Amino acid sequence: MKQLALAGLTVITVGAFGWYRGGDDAPAGITGTVKFTGTPPANPKIDMSEEAACAGSATTDPVVTVSNGNLADVLVYVKSGLPPGAAAAAPTAPAVIDQHGCLYRPRTVAVMVKQPLEIRNSDPVLHNIKAVPKKNRGFNISQPREGMKTTRTFTTAEVPIPLQCNVHGWMHANLAVLDHPYFAVTGPDGSFSIQGLPPGNYVLEAWHEKLGAQTMNVTVPATGNATANFTFSAK
Amino acid sequence: MATTAATLDQAIHHAHVDDRSFLRKYVFSTDHKIIGIQFLIMSLLFLALGGLLAMVMRWQLGFPGQAMPGGGVLPETMAPGGVLLPEFYISLVTMHGTFMVFFAIMPLLVGVFANFLIPLKIGAPDMAFPRINMASFWIAVPAGVLMVAGFFVEGGHAGAGWTAYAPLSAMPEMSGVSLGQQFWCVSLVILGLSSILGSMNYIATIINMRAPGMTWFRLPLSIWALFITSILVLLAIPILSGAAIMLLFDQTIGTHFFLPADGGQPLLWQHLFWFFGHPEVYILILPAMGFVSDIIANGSRKPIFGYHSMVFAIVGIGFLGWIVWGHHMFQSGMNPTLGMTFMISTLFIAVPSAIKTFNWLGTMWRGNLQFHVPMLHAIAFVAMFVIGGLSGVFMAATPVDIYIHDTYFIVAHIHYVLFGGSLFAIFGAITFWYPKMFGRLMSPFWGKVHFALTFVFYNLTFWPMHELGLKGHMRRIYDPSEYEFLQPLAPTNRFISIAAFLLFAVQLIFALNFVLSWFFGQKADRNPWKDTGLEWVPPSPAPHGNFDHTPTVYHMPYEFSHPHATEDYVPQNRPLEGQTRPAAAPAGQ
Amino acid sequence: MDWMLPPAFSTFAPDIDRIYYVILVLTAIAFVIVEAGLIWFVIKYRGRPDRKAYYTHGNATAEIVWTAVPAVTVVVLGIMSGPIWNKVKGRDSVPADAMPVGVRAQQFEWHVTYPGADGALGSADDFTVRNQLHVVVNRPTVVMLTAEDVIHSFFVPAFRLKQDAVPGMEIRVWFEPTQTGRFELACAELCGLGHYRMKAFVEVHTQEDYQRWLAEQTQAAATQ
Questions:
Q1: With bands split at pLDDT 50, 70 and 90, how would you rate the model's confidence at A87?
Q2: Contact across the interface for C27 and B390, Cβ inside 8 Å
Q3: Out of C66, C67, C157, closest to residue B485 by CB
Q4: Which of B87, B155, B172 has the CB atom closest to A142's CB atom?
Q5: Over the stretch A143-201, which tens digit does the pLDDT of each residue have?
Q6: Which residues, other chains included, contact B81 with Cβ-Cβ below 8 Å and sequence gap of 6+?
Q7: How many Cα atoms occupy the beta-carbon half-sphere of B53 within 13 Å?
Q8: Beta carbons of A35 and A229 less than 8 angstroms apart
Q9: Within its chain, how far is the Cα of A80 from the centroid?
C-alpha cells in the first residue's frame, strides 16, 4: 500500500512537472518566428485525379508553405549546449502524423527517442508508410483502411528521416528523432516555442527540408524567454 | 521350390530380438520405418499448418476487409482488430506455398514413403546408410522450426511468394521484410541438405540392395518413381541451395547477383529457381503416380497395364522436367524466341502424362474393382490429375499464357495437380500402408466419409478458380474488390472461400481417423490388401530389420488374377505356377 | 462455370482467344473420354464375388495409339501457337508506325511518359502522368516498359496483354486497341505490400480526343 502511494505520488509529481515545464509561464525557454522573404519556390504539381478518394485535396505538394511571410514546417531544435543530464524522460504522449487527403499532416513531425509516433490514416484508401533511416531500424507498413493507427518508436537521434507512401508517390513527410525534448515545429504562423530549458548558452538550429538549415547562438536567461527569429529566403 | 517358400514363411515368424533403448528406437532411430513415420508426423503437421494459412487467406479473399472470426488473437503487425494487413497476406501467400511444397507434399511423398517403402519393397533390411538417413530427418527438424519462427520476427515473414522473385526478395528496403526472408533462405538451405542426404541414400539403396531376383523391371512402379524422383532431388536441390545462398548474400553482405543497379540480373534468379523448380514439380507428382499405380493394380486385381511404358513414361517425365523451366518465364522478358522452344518441350509433357493416364484406365479395364479407401483415392487421383494435366496445355500454349499467366487459372492448375493429384495419392498411400506402419487398419467407414467429402469440397473449391483466371483475376492480390473488372467475381470468391473452409474442416475426419486408428483400429494381418509386394511378407507392423530371411523374387510385380493361380494374387516372393527358379536372378545368388 | 473469355479490344486478342477455344475443345474431348471411361469402368467392372479380372500385361497397339495421338495433337497446337506468339511478343513484331509511350513501373505506381507534340520520346516536350495511359484507337502503341525497383507486370486484360517489367531492362511491347473507352491496367507480378492496388487505367481515345487531351496536358505543363 505504501509502495502504491509512493508510485502514485511519483506519477503526480512527474506529471505536474511535465505540465509545469510545458506551461506558458515556464521560467526559461526560447520563442520565435520563422520568416520567409522573397518569392517562395513553386511547389511541385500533384495530379490526384486518378485517386477518387483524394481528388481535389491539393494540386501541389506543400514542400514550402508560406503565409503572410511566415514559414511553416520548420524544425527548430537545440543542437548543442545542453548541460549533461539535461535530457528528460521521453514523453509518453505520442506525436501524431495523419494521412489525410493523400497528404501527410503535418509535413514535419518530431519525436524524442522512445517517444511513440502515432501514424493515422484518415483516408478510405491504402497508404503504406515507408521509412528508410540510416541509424534507426527502417519499416514499411501499410494501412489499408480508414481509421487505422500504428505506433512506432525510435532508438537513436536522427534528423531527418524521410517518410513516404509508395501508393501515392507524391506523399512525403519529414520525421526528426531527437535525444532531448527541446524541439518544436513551426505552425502556419511560423512561430515556435521551446520551454523548460536550463539557463545557458545554446546553439539552435532551424531545419527545412528544401530551404536547408540555419543555426543561431541563443542565451537562455534564468527566467523568461529568449527570442530567436530565423529568416529563410529563396536560394 | 515350394519348400523354399514354406521355410521362408516360417522364418518370418521369428522376429528380431530388439533390445534398443526407447530413445534409439523411436527418437534417434536409424530404422527406415521409424524415420518414415517421423517424417509422416512432421509433414502432416505442416500440412495442417499450410492449410490453416490458406484458410486465413481465403477469409480475406471471400470477405475482404472484414474482421476474421478469431483473428483478434493475431498481433497488431499481422491483423489489427482481426482485419488482415496486406503485408501479412503476402506472407501467408508465401508461406502457404513454402510449407506445402517443401514441408508437406515433398516430405510426405519422398521423406515418408521413400524411407518406409524402399527397403521393404525391394527386400532389404534397411537403407544403405541408416545413420545418414537418421541425420536427414534430424536436419529437417531445425529447418522446419526456423521456417515457422520467421512469423515472429520483426518485419514479418518472407513476402515475395514461394518463388521469392528477386529483386523484391533481395531488397529489404523494398519488401519491408529483412529477417523473415533470411530465415526463409537459411531454412531452405538446411532442408536441402536433408533432401540431398535422403535422396543419395535412396539411390544407393535401390541400386545395391535389391533382393535376389528383384531385377530393374521387376521393381514396383512406386519404387521406379521414387528412384527417378531421388535422382531429380539430388540434381535439383543443390541449385536451389546455391540460389538461396546467393539471395541471402544479396540481402546481408552486399553482393548483387540479382540487383540490377549494381550490375546484377533479376532474371538470373528466375532461371535458377525454375531450373530447380520444374524438376521439383515432378518430384511432387512422380511418387504419387507410383503409389497410384501400385494401388490401382491392387484395387483392379489386375497386372498394371503396359508396365514398361509406365517405366519409360516416368523416365521421360523425369527427363523432360529439365528442359521446360522456361515455360514459367514466357512473360518475364526472356528472349521471346526461347518461348517457342520451351512451348514445344512443355507440350510434349502431355505425351508421357497421357501414356500414364491411359495405362491406368487400361489397368482398370475388365478388372474386378475393389473400392477400398486407397483405391477410391487412386481413382480420384486419375480423375483430378487429368484435369490438372489438361489445364496445363492452356498455359503451355504461349499465346494463351500471355493472358492467363499469373492469374487464378494457374492457381487452379497447380492445385489440381498438387492437391487433386499428389494429396489424393498421399491419402490413398497413407491408408494403404498404414497397417504396415502401425499394425492396425484405418477405419474404412470414416475413410470413405472423408474421401467423399474431400472430393466434393475439393472440386467446389478449385474448379471455380479456372473461371476466376479466365476473367483475368490476378493471383496473390490482397483485395480483388479494388478492381472494377473483378468486382462481379466477388460472389465466386465467397463461394470458393466457404467451400475451402468446409474442405479444411472435413480433414479433421482424416486426422481423427489417423490418430484413433493408431490405438483402436482393427488389427491388421500380414497382408490386409492381398497385395503382391514384398512389404507384405513381414508381419504388420514390420519388425526392426524387416525380413528374417532375405526374400527371393520370382516375377514382376502386380501378378493379380493369374489364370493358373488358386488365389487372385501371387506375391513376388512366390513362384508363379510352373515356374521353378527365379528367372534372371542376379549373378552370385 | 463460364468458360468464355471476357470481351477483347485489341487487334491480336481474337487470335489469342481463338487458340484458347481450340485448346478448350481439344481438352474437353480428352476430358470427356477419360472421365467418361473412368466412370464407365467404375460401374461396369465393379467388384463382385464371382468375377475374375482379365489377366493381361498390356497391348502394344494401344500403347502406340495413345502415345502418337497426343504427340501429334501437341505438335499441331505448337504449330498453331507459334505465329500468334511471334505476332504479339516477337522482337520484330512492333509495327513501325507505333506511337511510343514510356511506362515506368515503380512500387506501386505506373508513370507514363508521353512523347508530346513531336511524337518522339526523349525530347524536351515529353511529360509524365501518373497511372493514366492515354492511347489512340486503331493505332498501334508501343510501350517502352521499364521498372524502377522490383519486377512488376503490365497487364491489360481487355487487350489480352501481359508483360513483366524488369528493373535493368527495357522491354518493348505493343498493342492496337480496337475500341474507345476506359480499360483497367493491373500489376500482375507480386511486387510488395501495395501490389494489389498497383492499378491504372488505359483510356482509348479517338485521334481528335487524344489531340485535345494532349493539348490540355501540354498547356498544363507550360503554365507550371
A1: low
A2: yes
A3: C157
A4: B87
A5: 999 999 999 999 999 999 999 999 999 999 999 999 999 999 999 999 999 988 888 89
A6: B67, B71, B72
A7: 22
A8: yes
A9: 18
Amino acid sitting at position B110 = V
Q: How far, CA to CA in Å, does B238 sit from each of A161, B268, B275, B326, C29?
A: 42, 16, 11, 19, 41
- Amino acid B577: pLDDT: 75
Is-contact B134 A93, C-beta < 8 A? Answer: no
Angle (CA) B573-B579-B585 rounded to 5° is: 60
pLDDT at A55: 82
Residue type present at position B75? P
Residue B102 DSSP symbol: I
Cα–Cα distance, B426 to B422 (Å, whole number): 6
Predicted confidence at residue B450, as pLDDT, reads: 98
Please tell me the predicted confidence (pLDDT) of residue A56: 80
Q: What is the DSSP string of C159-190?
A: GTEEEEE-BT--EEEEE-B-S-EEEEEEE-S-
- Residue C74 CB-density burial (10 A; 0-12 exposed, 13-18 middle, 19+ buried): buried
Judging contacts by C-beta atoms under 8 Å, the chain C residues touching residue A166 are 106-109, 192, 194
pTM for the model = 0.91
Q: DSSP class of residue B24?
A: I
Averaged pLDDT score across all residues of chain B: 93
| Sequence-ordered alpha helix ranges (H) in B301-418 | 307-320, 336-347, 350-364, 373-396, 398-404, 408-415
Q: What is the ipTM score, two decimals?
A: 0.95
Mean pLDDT to the nearest integer, C144-164: 96
- Express each pLDDT in B96-126 by its tens digit: 999 999 999 999 999 999 999 999 999 999 9
Contacts of C61 in chain B (CB under 8 A): none
Contact at 8 Å (CB) between B214 and B123?
Answer: yes
Q: In which residue are the cell numbers 485525379 written?
A: A49
Q: What are the chain B neighbours of C37 within 8 Å (beta carbons)?
A: 361
- A133: phi then psi, degrees, rounded to nearest 5: -80, 170
Give, as one character, the DSSP assignment of residue B419: I
pLDDT digits (tens, 9 = 90+) for B366-407: 999 999 999 999 999 999 999 999 999 999 999 999 999 999
Residue in C129, C193, C200 closest to A142 by CB: C193
Distance CA B38, CA B33 (A): 9
Q: In what order do the strands lie in the sheet with A127-131?
A: A108-112, A172-178, A158-164, A127-131, A139-143
User: What is the SS3 string spanning B45-93?
Assistant: HHHHHHHHHHHHHHHHHHCCCCCCCCHHHCCCCCCHHHCCCHHHHHHHH
C-alpha cell at position B490 = 466477388
Helices (H) and strands (E) in chain C, counts: 3, 10
Reported as half-sphere exposure (CB side, CA atoms, 13 A), residue B552 has a value of 20
Q: Assess contact for B97 and B161: CB atoms under 8 A.
A: yes
Q: Does C109 touch chain A (CB under 8 A)?
A: yes
Average pLDDT score, chain C: 93
